[in-house]
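Lab notebook, bench 4. The sequencing result for the construct came back, and we need a structural model before the next group meeting so we can plan mutations. Quick request posted to the team channel:

Model the 3D structure of this chain.
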Amino acid sequence: MKAFLKSIFSLALLVAACTPSDDARARKLPEVKISWEEPLVLSAGGYVRVHPLTDGRLMCSYTHGGRGYARYSSDGGASWTDQEVIVNSFTAQKGDRSVTVTISNPETAQLPLDYPVHPGRLFYTVNLRPKDGLSTIHPYGIACRHSDDGGKTWSELSVLYLSEPWDTDTKKGCWEPFILPLPDGTLHLYYSDETPYYREGNKYQNISLLESRDGGDSWTGEPRIVCYTPKFRDGMPVAMIYEDRIYLSIETNNVDVRLHPQLLYTQLSNPWPETEGEFSPRRFDPMLKSMESPEYTTGAPYLIQTENFFVLSWQTSRGADVKDSNRRIMEVAACPKSEMKNCTFSTMRGISHPIDADIQTESVMWNSLTPLGGDAVLACCMYNGKVTLVKGVISL
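Done. Here's the predicted structure in token form:
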């Protein structure tokens, strides 16, 4: 028995010796650098997203005061139009009770000009939230408006998904919609959903998926669960297509591990045939040095690609008082596409800060990224309560 244990121990030492540490791996990899310009502050607001449109403009969406806004830029982000309300808050009535339903999590997407259905259609998706969590009057939901003339006029607000009308008021529901057009004409709508777990008494959450095959005119009635870590929270989905696969960035947590980024992938030809569980081989950590921590959160990840890099942003509470939920700083990392192996990449590095903020007194939250062509990116965030944009360039 002793000889057996000794052989096992020797084998473990050999494996450890042959497996490079994070520091050793880092020494063998070229440095990734991101050069940031000065921030541009637009107005009060948060949950900022910017998307390139087919006519060359940029569209900036954000929320403020319970409304969903948009601005446009025709000069690459140097100047912007005045803000306009795309989705307004409204009053819902049930019997003799009423509640204001506010607008959160606005996200935009546009169909390519060669798309098989409704080419060029522009989508503005939002999260419906009953104020003060009065969900017995109006449940949480996912809704959308679309435009077929580049944002000049918009359709009526269409509700795509509603959480259950609870028998007691709760601040649980669904959140964070994201639309991804697929080349075959299918639209994917990803969102975070607590609905199936409400009666378990805990804030468990999955990533769910609705589909449209007519350019957003109608959506599948029954959502599919893309991924779920049982008894924990998979949230804030952002999807992209690379080669013949869909990649999905999420935040997730686990026992003694607070929120941190993970990525998942599936084949474009048969996306998400089953729920990706905690130990799925298609779920991976993209970081050279893992962000898992029992002390600080690394949430709200946002994944994009440039010409030569995969790029990921997130907000972290590292260095802040963890009891203060408003103390987060935006960070960005990248890795060359050439480092992908077996459909995954785990060498995100070169962590940088688009805004050099003091986490003890400031916040840079609810961020996103936008590809601007080549290896240029736009970091979008809520900096101390204001819509803030920062241009950057990635290099080796």
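Residues 1-20 have pLDDT under 50 and may be disordered.
Will bring this to the meeting.
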